[in-house]
Specification:
Strand content: 5-15%
Largest sheet: 7 strands, mixed
CATH superfamily of the largest domain: Type I PLP-dependent aspartate aminotransferase-like (Major domain)
Radius of gyration: 23 Å
CATH architecture of the largest domain: 3-Layer(aba) Sandwich
Number of strands: 19
Number of domains: 2
Strand order of the largest sheet: 4-12-11-10-7-5-6
Structural class: alpha/beta
Helix content: 25-40%
Distance between the termini: 73 Å
Oligomer: single chain
CATH topology of the largest domain: Aspartate Aminotransferase, domain 2
Length: 479
Amino acid sequence: MRNTKWLSKSEIKEMLDYTLSDEEIDEAKTHLLTPVFERVFADSVGTGTPYFKVRGDERNIMDCTSQAWVLALGHGAIDPIYAAFYQAEKFSHHQYGFLDETRAKLASKIASIAPGKLLGGKVAFNNMGGSATNEAAIRLAYVSQKRNQKQQIVVFSRAYHGSSLAMTGATQYIRIATRYRSFGLDRWERAFFPYCYRCPWNYNNGLGGKKDKKCKLECLNLFQNYVEETSNQEVAAVLLEPMQGAGGQIPAPVEWLQGLKEICSKNKIQIIFDEFQTGFGRTGHMFATDYYNDIGKSDVAPDMMTLAKAAGGGLPLGILLASPDYKQFSEAEEHSTFSSTPVPMAACLVVLEIMEKHKIPENARKMGNLITKRVLELKETYPVIGDVRGPGLFIGVELIKDPKTREPYTELAEAMKKDCWNHGIYFQGMMPIIKPSGEMVRNVIKIKPPLIINEEEADIICERFEATLKSCLNDLNKN
């Protein structure tokens, strides 16, 4: 049997274990078409921790981003990577038409843990992540119609669904910020997403992602009128994040989701949940849909769910999950060169095993409750904290200038994103929202660390958050 090896292990390690000079780093930047941060990522700290290092800084930086919400099991989590290596030693790729045991096992596993009406459903994989997965869901929505005549897809205000040419039109900010015109803009319609802290019907006690007790769900009536009076003959599906991430960490109230499902069912409109940021334990449940089913005591599960981010344990993997009654795609309708690559699928199997065996979602719920409680306590000292939204480790802290007017404090949030490094912690904020006046609103700080943090690390996050907040307020007040 042929056993070809072109390079020795030492040669490969020598290629990868290097330290570039500052001049070499600067030269490399001139060859990149994509912008990069000022700091250069250097290393993970340990195995399965919330810390990382940047070039030229010996400190361990507490990561409240999980690196774009991907590293749910922490930096340096070795188990998924070992699974990928073990799979790659057997074989790393085959043409998309072949089935292998890893892909078969993952398909059955995803179907077995799916929430509500998705249980026992059907899946499609890719290794291109979010945009491609959402596009696959929309294709499935199109081909599943009896006559394929409905072409419109409803998305929502402040939504983020990816940055491909097609999905740019669905993503509110990127559509505005890019220097090119998105493809298929005529296919998207935008509806109002409930934002209870800033309710346009003046219900002022919608806090923590829950609606005001006096709320009569006018926002749901608005959606119902929109669908039934203007567009129900044209809309194939609605695509939404049940909890908006990039738009400001905004969970939809469960009553709104229940009503949305009823309206869509009545009008034969398919529902797609984008759970890229909320899937795989982030909300304290395996999926945000599970969270809503739990608190609402009824099934709000959509017709389809899209997953990515944390799925591959750091490797790219997108998953489309559809309810059991959907028929398969044809070969032409859903395929790509790498849609059957088993390496990230092996990693995903291990991610799921760890999450279930070690109760990772439950830990996210417990640590999220601890952090949320501590940050809410800070409101007494720092009235610039307007709202703190969860659940789990899907936390957003909305900053305001005045508790009465709730004017967004974008300057403070932007300052905190820069100053956090001085306190050994890394935050990110929401995507910019551009008002019709041209004003940019970006006033939410996200606290979304790896799901494996312990109580000591949760305390460190709260301490460093307060230190950053206090420092930035002092600087802004001086000016």
